[in-house]
Amino acid sequence: MYSPDLEDLPTAAHGKTGWPWTEENKRLQNVMPDGSPWPKISIVTPSYNQGEYVEETIRSVLLQGYPNLEYIVVDGGSTDGSVDIIRKYEKWLTYWISEPDKGQSHAINKGFREATGEIYAYINSDDVYSAGAFGTVAPIFSKNGEPHLVAGECVIFDGHTTKSIFKPWWPENVDHFLDPFGSTLAQPASFWSKEIHHRVGGFDEGFHFSFDREFFLKIALEGVTPHLISEEIARYRDHASTKTRHTIRFYEESIPFIERHAAACGVSEARKRDLLTQSQNEIDYIEVFICWKKRGRRPAMKRFFSMIKRSPELLLQRKISGLARRLLFFKAEDVAELRNV
Known about the structure:
By secondary structure, this protein is α/β, with parallel strands linked by helices. It is built from 10 helices and 9 strands. Strands 1, 2, 3, 4, 5, 6, 7, 8 and 9 form a 9-stranded mixed β-sheet that branches. Strand 1 (about 40-45), helix 1 and strand 2 (about 70-75) form a beta-alpha-beta unit. Helix 7 (about 245-260) runs antiparallel to helix 8 and helix 8 runs antiparallel to helix 9 (about 295-310). The protein is globular.
């Protein structure tokens, strides 16, 4: 499918202006600058009750002006009006479905089972591609030794405010990915080949918070080095319900993650035990705040002392002594961590 023009799409929502509401990317030529055909790009959007954002995501895909696009939307059975929005754009979608699924990684895999493109990527229903992203990324896959993974910069934004810019990098040692927050590429700004996707088996549906990191680790273990570009490719929306704020879930998933991949990453048994201990300590630390928020100070203090009894060396850490001070002397409303659990 050739990307539609702005005038083809439904009128922008009231009060919405700029990209991708009232602006579009310039339509690309039918062939790439070297005369070769544009590779087909298959984009998957997993969605569930993101009616506030999903239309912007859809438009940021469709208005790329790209000559060979395949767009797939997999909705998890939304009840907030998302399906009505998706239907507005269904004539430009290669495939879409709305039905209960087993989670985000399952939805993404469902989408890619329908894909026929040469280049794969997925964008969540609260993030957006930057104008010109596809035209920047696609030619790279036919040059530079035909890389299997390409990643660019990703703007982290809140509303209309830029908070930071995630610049891609690649670690020297693959064991970096064993860190619960060890991703070095921004997922919305990453594209990969169909070949490598199938070689590593897609996304592991047993992970719900760490599947991106696990996917990139599997690619790294295949000996792939990504092609990194210093151009803005996507924008990641930081908001109250985004999954990355569920810090404890990342640490909880890190335990089976480490157990599964430590040997392949070449880490020693001692290092593996250290990583597992660090993850469990972080879980225990966060659970004190969760207990304080849900049950009050006294139960939280009991949980704190249980943590110290189990791992007394934690008292040497500044953040643990800081937690003790907050439990003893601070009011709950003055503790920032309680607002984030």
